[in-house]
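Listing S7. Sequence submitted for prediction.
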Amino acid sequence: MKDIMDLHTHTVASGHAYSTLYEMARSASEKGLSLMGSTDHAPKMPGTCNEFYFINFKVIPRTLYGVHIIMGAELNILDYSGRVDLSDGLLGKLDYTIASIHDPCYENGTMSQNTSAYIGAIENPHVKIIGHPDDSRFPVDYDTLVSAAAQNHTLLEVNSSSLHPLSARMNARENYQVMLDLCRHYGASVIINSDAHIEADVGNHVRALELLDEISFPRDLIVNSSLERLLPYIPKLEAYI
């Protein structure tokens, strides 16, 4: 499958990543990507940037090294209602957002509570992607999750970093197999992302692609192959392509 994008990447602004935006974009160009999204961690993540970081994206060139650049944030889901850590006013100024559960920012609940947290985020019109919904430390009802994502036109992420042998996320492979079977059933689209925290990992989707190939996941439910396929999920993309 042609894979031309990576929309989950972090720069030094996230506090625990190690490359600049320009270094990440140059790596994307070297990998042959057409589109890179930068999604530094929103303010509740320890060590990340202040919310003011997200208000000045107008100064950033939207083409670097021949790669289209879109600017967003990885939001932290904070509670069982799906509340996130940037205001609606600020979210409306970003190109897109990913919403994820992270251990430092979220008190783990029951399967029902965790599922409600994801559903609340999915129903937020500013959230375009649910990040790494794959960690058994935060059990979730995948049937409810996938059904809601399909109904709300929200992308579910297959996070290649989660499949790394040293990932702290538990049982990601097994959980993705369940989630992807349900995506096939409900017709819910997915996006493959690297979650790169250093330039060498931009566009590194090897583990995710291997899993998708193994289960013969339908290519028409993966948006990575064309900007036109992504556009209905991230309408602001049209301004930059």
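Caption to Listing S7: primary sequence and predicted structure tokens for the chain studied. The helical segments are 21-30, 88-91, 111-122, 142-152, 172-186, 206-214, 227-230. The chain has a mean pLDDT of 98.
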